[in-house]
Amino acid sequence: MSSALARPARAALRRSFSTSAQNSAKVAVLGASGGIGQPLALLLKNSPLVSGLTLYNIAHTPGVAADPSHIETRAHCLKGCNVVVIPAGVPRKPGMTRDDLFNTNACIVATLSVACAQHCPEAIIISSPVNSTIPITTEVFKKHEIYNPSKIFGVTTLDIVRANTFIGVLKGLDPARVNVPVIGGHAGKTLIPLISQCTAQVDLPQDQLTAITGQIQEAGAEVVKAKAGAPLATLSMAYAGAQFVFSLVDAMNGKEGVVECSFIKFPEADCAYFSTPLLLGKKGIEKNLGIGKISSFGEKMIAEAIPELKASIKKGEEFVRNVK
């Protein structure tokens, strides 16, 4: 990924607190009373890029909607959303993998995807990037004959935020000046940080490279363990989700050169879904920038990730096919 297209990790979030915006978007958050949904709604409510904010949840929705409605910004709850964010789902607990709660979360994602297909078929969908659930949204949209591969995103921004932070700490750099592309998936060894492509050039001996790669891959499990049963990485996920929304809305407003990594349908690759850097545009994905030149260490990680990714993708696709 070229440095001309890359941008500091915090730039989009900082822009959200500016006093004006050329255009704005109507955004819905599905799962708004959850641990991720609430701080995400707060960040979106505080952005001049968002003129309409609609909040949905199976419980406590009136209170969650009333609370941010008291904030003195112009976002109001309106219909006709053109961006839908889905952080809904049951969080992991210590000792659980991301697939342990697959059936429950698959039902949630499938139900919400059906609602989106029926009520806002032209919206851009931004969802938590569990390797098996983005294929669920895709298959639901295919069933409803409205599938557009440029409009369904699995947000892997949290992995990049973590990679930037950990590299910054390790090398004594300002994390806001670090940008590490993270490709592949969003779980364990399927999550592949391309430290060799970091915009702030970083040279690490193999032992340090292996160690920090493992730290990035297991960062979610670290938070789950540290919270001792409390909900997973809610604040950092909300921050990352908001950052992706702001980048997307900037691109929808016509800003050029906006790049984010995301887990998407990738038919040209060996794996049907894969996260890569994407050039965003007015209608979603403008161009898939691919993985670029990678090191032998990166090639090895990709080879190890593919079988697990394929299994997760197949699981999600089969779930939708088996739903009556």
Looking at this protein, list some descriptive labels.
324 residues; alpha/beta; eight-stranded mixed beta sheet; two-stranded antiparallel ribbon; 10 helices; globular; disordered N terminus
What does this molecule look like?
- Residues 1-21, 61-65 and 70-78 have low confidence and may be disordered.
- Strands 2-1-3-4-5-8-9-10 form an eight-stranded mixed β-sheet, sandwiched between helices. Strands 6-7 form a two-stranded antiparallel sheet.
- Helices cover 41% and strands 16% of the residues.
- It contains ten helices and ten strands.
- By secondary structure, it is an alpha/beta fold.
Summarize the structure.
With 324 residues, the protein is an alpha/beta fold. Helices cover 41% and strands 16% of the residues.
Topology:
Elements lengths: L10 H5 L9 E6 L6 H9 L4 E7 L4 H9 L13 E4 L15 H18 L4 E4 L6 H10 L8 E4 L1 H15 L10 E3 L6 E3 L12 H12 L1 H9 L6 H19 L6 E7 L7 E9 L2 E5 L7 H27 L2
Parallel strand pairs: 1-2, 1-3, 3-4, 4-5
Antiparallel strand pairs: 5-8, 6-7, 8-9, 9-10
Find the count of extended strands (DSSP E, 2+ residues): 10
Mean pLDDT: 82
Helical content band: 40-55%
What structural class results from the helix and strand content?
alpha/beta
Shape: globular
Instruction: Determine the oligomeric state from the structure.
Output: single chain
Termini separation comes to 43 Å
Please state the CA-atom Rg, rounded to the nearest Å.
Answer: 18 Å
How do the strands of the widest beta sheet line up side by side? 2-1-3-4-5-8-9-10
Strand content: 15-25%
Specify the biggest β-sheet: 8 strands, mixed
Tally of separate helices: 10
Residue stretches low in confidence (pLDDT < 50, at least 5 long) are 1-21, 61-65, 70-78
Order of helices and strands: HEHEHEHEHEHEEHHHEEEH
